[in-house]
Amino acid sequence: MQIIIIGGGASGFMAAIAAAETFPDHQIIILEKNKTVLNKVRISGGGRCNVTHKPSELRFFLKNYPRGEKLLRKLFHQFDAQATVDWFEKRGVTLKTEADGRMFPITDSSHTIIECLLKTAKKLNITVRTSTGVKYFTHQAADSGKNGFSLYLDENEILYADRLLIATGGYPKLNSFDWIAEHQHDIITPHPSLFTFNTPDNYLLSLAGVSVQDVLVKINGSKHEWRGPLLITHWGFSGPAVLKLSAWGARELAANDYHFTCKINWLPEMNDQEIREFLINEKIKTPKQQITSHSRFGIPSRLWKAFAEKAEIPDDMKWSDAGYKVLNRLTDLLSNSQFEVKGKTTFKEEFVTCGGVDLSDINPETLESRKIPGLFFAGEVMNVDGITGGFNFQNAWTTGYVAGKSIGK
Hints:
409 residues; alpha+beta; FAD/NAD(P)-binding domain; Elongation Factor Tu (Ef-tu), domain 3; Helicase, Ruva Protein, domain 3; seven-stranded antiparallel sheet; 20 strands; elongated
């Protein structure tokens, strides 16, 4: 039996390896349209590869998937984060856990993961073809006397497969799924997920590079909010709090053409009254000290000065001279900053897409198509996506493994 996997990314390689180990007599071929394979693995985590997230109780782990939680609940019983850790360690790759739960190879190099996958694939005699794009495929039903697939490649080459797995990742445009939709599959409209907020009128843009470790970011007019680190950039806001919030609000924000108001509470541990009382107390404790000279609350000094300027506090104003109106303005900025978002920024190499093949078209036990026997899916081509922190790679390892274990039956 010949099994062809379209897509040489994390899920494609995991599927190929699982299939080759489960069905050693079958021929496994990976087709990748780019010149190199495992490109997202290579650049993930700044070149370190955020392999997965620290294993935890299933109900908590699943809360990191805005879409696909129900499907993954079934699949994680077959292959979860701990299984991923064990899988790589069995093949000589030790992972380490960082303070925020992200897991990386102990070498801090994505090449460690790439070499592991390539070496394992070679050992199992898996054929890997690069610069090989698939234009479209056809399916021959069993009642026609030959159940299988014909793949039409870029150079007018035709390949035959007894089983076919699509692991091509996510696409930012709906028409990119046309070649799958032609085969009776419903496509959930794709939209970017994990993006930064562009705030062109933001008075903090000159502070690009400044980060705050604990803020609460909300999308006004919605229930979406996220607490965590934030980074000020040349175009607006980034960092885990913004990226994770964007994942949960991806569809709603797309519907608004990425024009909305976000609210930032820079001191989520305190309420307005506590902040105000702290500031009033500074009038008593340090009356002769200039307000802008020493930041409070652990806020970076440059950011503190920007807040003071926005609150119309002169550089030479002392705490004793700050009236209640001034302190109220500063309190409001610290707990309730409002910024108009006018667009997003995604990173081409690392973009994540919500949307894709409708999960109702896929068998949740095997990831085989309910519409076409012998056709399987894995990875982000399905309507599954996770927040940043290793969860999207875990989706790739899990779905690839389950599809690979099922595809040769």
